[in-house]
Design brief:
The chain has 175 residues and is mainly alpha-helical. The protein contains six helices and no strands. The chain starts with a helix and ends with a helix. It is found in: Mitochondrion inner membrane.
Length: 175
């Protein structure tokens, strides 16, 4: 099994040279990207950047689960919505979505930087030595807010997903 995010990130970052920002990998297709990465860097190349993706998922899931029930209970305690109502579940999901975006965005930024950096012949990144080095470089050069680039887009993607996932999970749990 390979990390599809490596291929996805290469393809998403690719654009015309006139508007390109950052390193360009110039793959022509998904299969071409897999083949090119594998030929140049082997199986390890397909997994490059996963050190940022794994903590991203772990932290995001933890934030989602830890905040949902607390937020749902909180809005019910204030009597904004009654206990067990779908509105309380949606409100809890919205708060949880914010928590997920806040906790996952730094990991998204680091993962993207690690996946998309140029590499030398042996597959070693030319910009970052790894997860911790990437965080330290971003923080020192761009400030802590550099780790939150794109948080609005992250919330627009993860907010609805979190709300709907938790809404359906809560409804299925009641059954």
């Amino acid at each position: 099994v390979v990390s599809p995010a490596q291929v996805k990130t290469h393809l998403q970052a690719q654009t015309l040279s006139a508007v390109a920002v950052g390193h360009q990998h110039n793959h022509e297709s998904i299969s071409g990207a897999f083949e090119s990465i594998y030929k140049q860097h082997g199986v390890a190349g397909l997994w490059r950047g996963v050190t940022g993706a794994v903590p991203r998922v772990a932290v995001g899931s933890a934030a989602q689960l830890a905040t949902f029930t607390s937020a749902k209970d909180w809005v019910c305690e204030r009597q904004w919505f009654r206990e067990g109502s779908w509105a309380a579940v949606l409100a809890g999901g919205m708060v949880s979505g914010v928590a997920v975006a806040v906790t996952m965005t730094p990991f998204d930024v680091v993962s993207t930087r690690l996946y998309n950096q140029p590499v030398d012949a042996d597959g070693t990144g030319k910009l970052y030595r790894g997860f911790l080095d990437c965080i330290l470089q971003i923080s020192s050069k761009e400030g802590l807010l550099g780790l939150y680039k794109g948080i609005g887009a992250v919330y627009l993607r993860l907010g609805p997903h979190t709300v709907l996932s938790l809404f359906f999970w809560d409804e299925l749990r009641k059954m």
